[in-house]
Amino acid sequence: MADFDLAIIGGGINGAGIARDAAGRGLKVLLVEQNDLASGTSSASTKLIHGGLRYLEQGALRLVREALAEREVLLRIAPHLVHPMRFVLPAEAAERPAWMLRLGLFLYDWIGGRRTLAPRRIVDFGRDPVGTPLKPHLSYGFEYSDCTVDDSRLVVLNAVDAAARGASIRTRTRCLRAERTSEWRLMLDARGRRDVATARVLVNAAGPWLASVAEGVLRQEPALPVRLVKGSHIVVKRMFEHDRAYILPTGDGRVVFARPFGSNFTLIGTTEEDFVGDPAVLSVEPHEIDYLCAVIGDYFRRAIHPDSVVWAFAGVRALYDDGSGSATETTREYVLTLDQEPARAPLLTVYGGKITTYRRLAEAALAKLDGILSIRRSWTARKALPGGEFAPGRDEALVAKARRTWPFLAESHARRLIAAYGTRIGLVLEGVASAADLGPRFGADLTGAEIRYLMRHEWAQTADDVLWRRTKVGLGLAGDERSAVDLFMIGALGTL
Ligand code: FAD
How much is the pTM? Predict the structure, then answer.
């Protein structure tokens, strides 16, 4: 008998989402991730839970409807990680007649079953602070709702919940080879430690590595063609004082977002170009930075320059190649293929997808396996992710409660902990009765207690795991403070 019902290659949002869903339906699940959870594309997104106005224009009604509806579901099950945000589209620059924008936003508001998110409205840039940083020729725009998400924490919390429901989550474990007979036999390499696991069904959720896993690990061509599309973001010091985001048409059929990021920064992106090469070695090229600075220069009074950039990151989408002329037009729909032959264990492959629709993708993946495995009813729309067991919008009440329980926490510190851990803050601060119990402080409110929690409960092994994926405090730390985190973690390894 196989060790597992389902083995999943890839600990991005799609692999982690499938693992959680499957474990909650009683399946024995193994997830292997060659590096850290969310170390691939799932930490390099624009961090939006959105329908995608642009995809509406491309006629992707099914995708947009599903994504819009997921906003309300994810707000409910992950209220610590997902937050409403208002987006402002300058009307004069939109290269579309105003009636078309109105119609698009009307559809956007209504096809996705919006319930709690605020509806669209017109904004007069002469009266509203949202107009202040913009160039004077822009006089009005449209404002609508979408949501933001902490993408990498969403992945980690899906994995935490999967593990709590019995899944085996193995990070820093690469699947080197998978032999296919009536079951799958996976050769695994955990940083030099080799072992074998068997499974009834295999899922290739390797994102940008999908084709290389198919060819190199499974020794078979992917069933469908894949198009790799790279996108880069830059982060600059906060460009405006209000809490809304801008969606900026670029003149080449695309849009660039400029959105608040943490309390002190603005995140700008993305570029979009076909990618060839190794997704593990991505860099943000100078021409991409110039492009994003130029888009900002078209709209904002205050220009930004390459030397304004404090952080930049790139990610690669692995899209189903539908033969579209450009990367921009290629479908963002997810596609799942099931390869099933007599006497050979089934293989499910995940193409494309969005952070926004990961939960629905997982449901669709399990629906495809119905009949092969015993699949119970879907459940993930109703159960909160770890730490999310509170009503949306109650964050402030949790912050106040945390400060009553741990009066030595500064308000900004308590707010950051609630945004990351929600009701699990008690686990993060377990045994902490005084400021001294928080342990060493590394800058930006990061403490030894939090790092120990992340190592014990969230698979953190390196400073990067902590600073850039499980928190985003890396942006607020100097080089020597980051090295101190590394040293602390090496020391803590032996004591956990
Ligand atoms: P990944 O996150 O890349 O995960 C695949 C994992 O497989 C990797 O961690 C890798 O290490 C692992 N792996 C590979 N080979 C092996 C092996 N042999 N053994 C073990 N592990 C292996 N979506 C939204 O909804 N909202 C957005 O705002 C948004 N913005 C985006 C912006 C950009 C620039 C990009 C590129 C994408 C954006 N997306 C957005 C889409 C979204 O980020 C992706 O669809 C999603 O992250 C893909 O997740 P994944 O799990 O398929 O892939």
Answer: 0.97
